[in-house]
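Reviewers of the previous submission asked for a worked example of the structure-prediction workflow described in the proposal, so we include one complete record here. The input consisted solely of the amino acid sequence. No template or homolog information was supplied to the procedure at any stage.
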Amino acid sequence: MFVDQSRPLYRAGGHYPLGPIEAKDWLPFIRQRFRKSDKEISDDLIRSICQRTGGHPFYTQHLCHAIWELCETGTKVAEETIESATRLLLDRENYAYTALWESLGLNQRRFLIGIAGEPEGVKVFSADFLQRYNLRSPGNVQRAVEALLTRDVIDRSNGAFVISDRFFKIWINQAHSSI
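From that input alone, the workflow returned the following structure tokens.
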């Protein structure tokens, strides 16, 4: 809203990107919020949530809210609750994710499958990555990166590329692990 020139509030406010928050900093916040509702969540499960969301504030709180909705008052959150909440969020977004996926070119899809399935920081221009994901040339990767950055599907993070929507990454891994 504030960084897009075509929007009416362009540059009306400062741009302050909020990066990932470490699990250790999420622990007291999430634990306290669940306890206020007479629900318990273990530190291990909070770490599991943070691992899924990469510590991204929006996606972490979004997943926690879905977990909170599914957890009965007076009970403890279980790993199954986190799985159910993740499925719930993916189901809610399935149409949008499918539409986005179908609008992408083959090399863009292959690139996304690669960065979704590899550890963060993978060398996307390496011969190994190109071969593993059938991208054929660094030029194909560069064109895919430029198109995906323009559409805000990916971001740069510490010299690497990450899928902006943490649940889209999970969706890709579940639905399209190979082309």
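The chain has two domains: 23-93, 104-175. We consider this example representative of the routine output the project will generate in years two and three.
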